[in-house]
Amino acid sequence: MAEHARQIIQNKKVWQILDVINWGKDYLEQHSVELPRLVIETLLMSVLKCKRIDLYMQHDKPLTAEELGEVKKGVLECVEGKPLQYIVGEVEFYDTILTVTQDVLIPRPETEILVDAVIRDYSSSSHDGEVSVLDIGTGSGNIAIAIAKKIENCRIFAADISSKAIEVAKKNAIRNKVEKKITFFTADIMQNWKRSSSLQFEYIVSNPPYIPENEVLPLSVRDYEPHQALFAGCDGLLFYERIVTSCSGWLKKGGKLFFEIGIHQHSRVDRLMTDNGYCNVSFINDLQGIARVARGVYQGTKE
Questions:
Q1: Is 96 domain-assigned?
Q2: Residues 6 or more apart from 117 whose CB is under 8 A from it?
Q3: Is the separation of the CB atoms in 208 and 139 below 8 Å?
Q4: Is 89 annotated as a binding-site member?
């Protein structure tokens, strides 16, 4: 397959942008890659460091051999199943551009619902001074960074078990000019966290791993994304249970917990939160009507 693609490219002496778009679209389509035109456009924008409109305004611009080689490499990686976001090294999330590597989960559109819910809640509530937020399992830093950009007077602490993920998140915070508002640290929520008794938060937010270990995933997810950011025990509830039962002490009374949840998990998460000191538990659906975000107000542990 790679040799076939190489021969096609070598058979033409000069490749202009439009030539590459047409070839890439056809080649990706033949290999059942979804949205082939968008994929080849994205690869070209990444390699040429330009906007989509530039591809068509300069459609007759020839590519150098090096540029052509980079695009071809990206096309072949797409055909093999590697996610486009990892190939180009970045993703757009809630009006931010983030660097992504295979050390972090690729931010999904569903997680924007979680961020939006927190921001809307903040905007509709009264607050005295700086608002404190704890982001558990920050990954690329997407949730913390998006919140930091939208809520001016906030202080965010963002944790992840992976030191490599934390390094990516720190770079993303700098890239988005919010590094002074976020403290990143490495921690394992399955262990007992040490904390200052005076350190409590108005919000805890988390998009934890929530996929059951036996669930079959697309190869592009299973073979490329970090498993520790995906799987959560036999029923997918492992991290919800840990956060609700052991991390709620980080919340001020009246503080709020926001989770992203998986399909068919809302009833069990509802019961888990209600049984552990949360009231007004509610859920927000995605565009398909699937409950994706859980929200609850912490009233303290039951006596």
A1: no
A2: 258, 284, 293, 295
A3: no
A4: no
Tell me how far CA of residue 85 lies from CA of 97, 147, 238, in angstroms. Answer: 11, 22, 28
- Residues 152-174, buried b or exposed e (16+ Cβ, 10 A)? eebbbbbbbbbeebbbbbebbbe
| Cα 28 to Cα 44: distance, rounded to the nearest angstrom | 14
Q: Is 22 annotated as a binding residue?
A: no
* Domain count within the chain: 2
249 is in an annotated binding site: no
95 in a structural domain: no
Average pLDDT over residues 231-254: 80
Domain region containing 129? 102-298
pLDDT of residue 6: 52
210 is in an annotated binding site: yes
pLDDT of residue 190: 67
In a domain, 284, yes or no: yes
The contacts of residue 167 (CB under 8 Å, 6+ apart) are 103
| pLDDT of the residue at 243 | 86
Residue 303, pLDDT > 50, answer no
64 is in an annotated binding site: no
DSSP designation for 236: S
160 marked among binding-site residues = yes
DSSP-H helix ranges across the chain: 2-10, 17-30, 36-48, 52-57, 65-80, 84-88, 109-123, 142-150, 163-175, 219-222, 238-246, 266-274
262 is in an annotated binding site: no
To the question of whether residue 140 is assigned a binding role by annotation, the answer is yes
pLDDT (tens digit per residue) in 128-166: 889 999 999 999 999 999 999 999 999 999 999 999 999
Residue 11 annotated as binding site: no
139 is in an annotated binding site: yes
Taking residue 1's Cβ as centre, other Cβ atoms within 10 Å add up to 10
Q: How many helices (H) and strands (E) does the chain have?
A: 12, 9
278 found inside a domain: yes
